């Protein structure tokens, strides 16, 4: 045994990890005192005035549950939320649900999308053969690698979006699927790919699914933007339902209600009642009802060990909306409001950039889907936009379209035009 040195901290070898880039960007934006500042960083929906939006369906649901008690939820979460969440994801006529291969079983509440991904990862790491790799798209949401690597997985990348064309790279996706070891895990974005906004068409999803089936790969859907992508939840859940019910595949689905219900979890006293709670839903579709019950028991064990039982408020809001026909219709209208404002802003940004004759191919801005779009600028130009024009976007030049509105769009387009022209003449 080596000798112990007195007064040396057990933690002296801990290396420092820099702060999360996206959360750091929000802090930089908040600290900026310039009146022209524009926040196109973190992906949170904003209304036309640039304010967070409390969905009318959420406001009404909160009224309904205001007398709810503060008791513990069951370990797996609020029972109606689990069932309604599954029905929402897989659709009313799902065979997998009818056969109890998922449904009220193998579905649990999680701490928003990230909590669902982490719980899924912890379960898969316990269950799949050692050395099973997890494939993530390149580029992808900045947290994917971290979630799976901290669990212990080897994480590999495959090109999803081509920076050269600004579009989906289908052949690279199909190659990666064909070459991966059987039973590898593939993390797909169910809709509104983050950051690129490049979603496969239905036919392209079908091509992807057929190789997933042939190679016995395990699809894991990160489903953070269902409903807010096109305005229709059913439409946005196409890939999940196709893999699960048309092809009968096993699948993992990690769903968040942060974006599509505006439940990000922030406290905003000035907005009276802007309190959210992190609410997500994890489900795994298996081949038999027996496996589903066993999977569920693992969810319960992992949840109990990690957080004991999940928070109630967000799940009550979501279950109240999903379980009440009038509130559900209102939520449908809320989704359409958010999605159409975002697509209107895409169009307006594209038209203004075209009007300015900014050099480059800007068409992808209107072709891409969901909250984000990658401008394709080098990091020096992203920093120039931040430092000179007070426009904040992720270092990979991803912009959150939801941060645009009629008051800032011309300013943003003019700044992009200026830095792009400087880039070309440099
Ligand atoms: C984003 O991508 O900006 C959001 O999903 C926020 C986050 O947690 O990174």
TrEMBL record:
rRNA processing found in the keyword field: no
Family matches, as Pfam families: Aminotran_1_2
GO biological process: amino acid metabolic process
Transmembrane domains' residue ranges: none
Entry GO MF terms: L-aspartate:2-oxoglutarate aminotransferase activity; pyridoxal phosphate binding
Superkingdom classification of source: Eukaryota
Residues of the Aminotransferase class I/classII large domain: 36-416
Cofactor(s) annotated in UniProt: pyridoxal 5'-phosphate
Keyword set, alphabetical order: Aminotransferase, Pyridoxal phosphate, Transferase
Record family assignment: Belongs to the class-I pyridoxal-phosphate-dependent aminotransferase family.
Complex formation: Homodimer.
NCBIfam families according to UniProt: PRK09257.1
Name by which UniProt lists this protein: Aspartate aminotransferase
Organism from which the protein derives: Tolypocladium paradoxum
């Amino acid at each position: 045994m080596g000798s112990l040195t007195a007064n040396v901290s057990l933690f002296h070898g801990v290396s420092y990890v820099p702060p999360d880039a996206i959360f750091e960007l929000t802090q930089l934006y908040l600290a900026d005192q310039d009146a022209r500042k524009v926040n196109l960083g973190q992906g949170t929906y904003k209304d036309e005035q640039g304010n967070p939006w409390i969905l009318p369906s959420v406001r009404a649901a909160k009224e309904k549950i205001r007398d709810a008690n503060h008791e513990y939820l069951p370990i797996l979460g609020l029972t109606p939320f689990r069932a309604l969440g599954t029905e929402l994801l897989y659709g009313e006529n799902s065979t997998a649900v009818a056969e109890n291969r998922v449904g009220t079983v193998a579905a649990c509440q999680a701490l928003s999308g990230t909590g669902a991904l982490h719980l899924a990862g912890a379960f898969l790491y316990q269950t799949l053969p050692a050395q099973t790799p997890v494939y993530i798209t390149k580029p992808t949401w900045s947290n994917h690698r971290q979630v799976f690597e901290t669990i212990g997985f080897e994480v590999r990348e495959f090109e999803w979006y081509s920076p050269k064309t600004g579009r989906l790279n289908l052949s690279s996706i199909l190659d990666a699927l064909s070459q991966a070891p059987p039973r590898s895990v593939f993390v797909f974005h169910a809709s509104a790919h983050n950051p690129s906004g490049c979603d496969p068409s239905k036919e392209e999803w079908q091509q992807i699914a057929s190789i997933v089936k042939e190679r016995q790969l395990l699809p894991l859907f990160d489903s953070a933007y269902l409903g807010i992508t096109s305005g229709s939840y059913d439409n946005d859940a196409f890939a999940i339902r196709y893999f699960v019910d048309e092809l009968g595949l096993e699948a993992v689905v990690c769903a968040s209600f942060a974006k599509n219900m505006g439940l990000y979890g922030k406290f905003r006293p000035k907005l009276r009642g802007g309190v959210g709670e992190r609410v997500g839903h994890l489900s795994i579709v298996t081949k038999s009802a027996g496996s589903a019950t066993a999977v569920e028991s693992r969810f319960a064990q992992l949840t109990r060990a990690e957080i004991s039982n999940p928070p109630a408020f967000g799940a009550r809001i979501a279950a109240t909306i999903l379980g009440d026909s009038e509130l559900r219709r209102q939520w449908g209208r809320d989704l359409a409001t958010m999605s159409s404002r975002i697509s209107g802003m895409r169009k307006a940004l594209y038209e203004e950039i075209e009007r300015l004759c900014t050099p480059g191919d800007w068409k992808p801005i209107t072709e891409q889907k969901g909250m984000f779009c990658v401008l394709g600028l080098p990091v020096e130009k992203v920093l120039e936009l931040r430092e000179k024009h007070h426009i904040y976007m992720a270092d990979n030049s991803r912009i959150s379209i939801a941060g645009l509105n009629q008051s800032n769009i011309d300013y943003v387009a003019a700044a992009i035009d200026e830095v792009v022209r400087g880039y070309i003449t440099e």
